[in-house]
Amino acid sequence: MTYSLDSPHHRNHDIHHAPEIARGPASRDIVGRSPSMSRVLDFIARVAPTDATVLLHGESGTGKELAACAIHRASHRASGPFVAINCAALPEHLIESELFGHSRGAFTGAVTGKKGKMEFAAGGTLFLDEIGELPIALQPKLLRALQEREFTCVGANHPIQADVRIVAATNCDLRAAITKGTFRLDLFFRLDVVSMTLPPLRDRREDIPLLAKHFASECGARLGRHVAGFSAEALQRMLGYSWPGNIRELQNAVERAVVLGSGDVIQLHDLPEAIVTARPATAEEDEGSFHTAVRQFKRHLILKAVDCAGGNITHAARTLSVDPNYLHRLLRNLNLREGLK
């Protein structure tokens, strides 16, 4: 069953009473009150009490693992383990052992037996991230584990019961992979019991201020630094940025601003250069040529100002009407320091 964001039930859903934050494990939260995130939280609330296999779609950085964690925490398996494995992060010859475990002597170097992630997840939830990258040769074994609720370690003969709930995630088109022969149709249908696509950040811009405040508060607490908020200019630029890296990119940008910023309020020049120089996401001009022209003009302007100031960065910053710390950052980001030596 595909959980549609446009179903009649959700068009009538009162988003004003939806929670802004759903708690995740280890103080990780799902933050948002946009209509699309209200529907995600509703989906989590509906599927969590069941043991149904869940398939999460979405671009990289949209929070698929966080959603999987939230499903686990709201389920009857919450007291059990939440175990994650990234199917794209391991070499093909190791992933079967990592997933199912192996017995001693199963292959060269296997001097002891080892439990796999599926066995470690017994009584809890196993999160299979980047499931589209699972080697085609291993897919039948995973399919059998899902169908029969049992699996066999590499090199062993006796099956082990798989008392585990599966939540899988992908940022690729699995139907296209099926057409190409890199993903099994039967495994897809076994995983696609209930599914949802997590929205990219550009489609939930109203959540950007909430997320930015949340990340700034978290990072400030870790660093022992008070962050009162964001300047109007910084917030406006963040709202207009396209965020190709989604929530992960926003979190990194805010953390960078908290670390490098000097005041209680995060200013535009505290943000990464890509955000500072970016056009509004709705602009129609060619992005590549725009950024190239801006970057070249900025390099020329900075080098001229520093040259006229005799290499004094503080004086050059005054000439350019920018903060000296920001100018130092520009020199580093634009690789201009070597040219000044």
Strand content: 5-15%
Q: What is the level 1 CATH name of the largest domain?
A: Alpha Beta
- List the strand order in the largest sheet: 4-7-10-3-11
Write the CATH architecture name of the largest domain: 3-Layer(aba) Sandwich
- Cα Rg: 24 Å
Count of DSSP helices?
A: 16
What do we call the CATH topology of the largest domain?
Rossmann fold
Q: Which regions are unreliable across 5 or more consecutive residues at pLDDT < 50?
A: 1-27, 283-288
Roughly what is the average pLDDT, rounded to an integer? Answer: 83
Secondary structure class reads: alpha/beta
Total of domains: 3
Assign the CATH superfamily of the largest domain. Answer: P-loop containing nucleotide triphosphate hydrolases
Oligomer type: single chain
Global morphology: elongated
